[in-house]
Amino acid sequence: MATVDLKRLAKELNLAVSTVSRALRDSYEISAETKQRVFELARKLNYVPNPYASSLRKHKSKTIAVVIPEIANNFFALAINGIESIAQEKGYHVLIYLTHEQYARELSISRHLQSGRVDGLLVSLSGETNNYDHLQELKQTGVPIVFFDRICESLNSARVITNDFESGMKAADHLIERGCRRIAYLSISHNLSIANKRMDGYIRAHEKHGLPFDPKLVLQCSANDNDGNYKAILNLLKKKNRPDGIFASVEKLAILSYQACDELKLRIPEDVKVLGFSNLETAAWLNPSLTTITQPAFEIGKEAAALLFKTIEKKSMNFSEEKLVLNSTLIVRNSTK
What we know:
Mean pLDDT is 91; it is low at 51-56. This protein is α/β, with parallel strands linked by helices. Strands 2-1-3-4-5-11 form a six-stranded parallel β-sheet, with helices on both faces. Strands 7-6-8-9-10-12 form a six-stranded mixed β-sheet, with helices on both faces.
């Protein structure tokens, strides 16, 4: 008689093996109707779980993975410190994977992690990512996923973010109150919710102050082409009706703005005021010091890790709807005086 295993049950029910496995474990992720179908066939075929395989599934690697787009951005370095602080308390190792802002790299890492080498995953999306099937597939294997900062709105998973809309509005408010009337918004990627929400706040500030929104002042930069971004900022600042303020959605675009102003002999803040999202400790030491929207990066990493371990330790509970929003801070320095 042929052995009745998960693969046979899955084939006869036309379901994925992972779905059958979760149904037999009475997972909340599987509907009552599907569970009933699985249980009925298992009884009919006298399915007996393989205790050895079951023990392997219960074995923990004591390792979590963190997938981030880059390490040069000080935000991610601080977030990793926050993640590590919780992982060490739990006795876990942390594997860091860099996508270098590339969707293909993120896809490859996700497929690699389907082997079960980690107990959970923390993700901040690449700037190129606009398809999330790879993360859905990984989640279906039973790996808990928590997003932080750069999140996927369409995937039902826990996330830790900052108040990007309000921060974007606060940043534009500040520039307008300092006399700017033509504010350029430098976006890192139209795929990322953080960039879009910050831009929404920027637009709302214009409406609040009765200023027209000029889409020509929105510069869609590339997530991984610094040379191209630098040239685009230069061209924007060379225009006759150039911006008198720059709002950079990420810190590397703020630094490129400084470099472009220096090349064109534009004075900051007299000719152009510059503000950026940044966690750079050196922001206060730039010449002039950079006004920033500073995110609580360490706390974001810490809270995201705490939420992931709660999911790992209490798998019978559903934490996919959990959403934690932390507040960023406007720190005014000389670049907007």
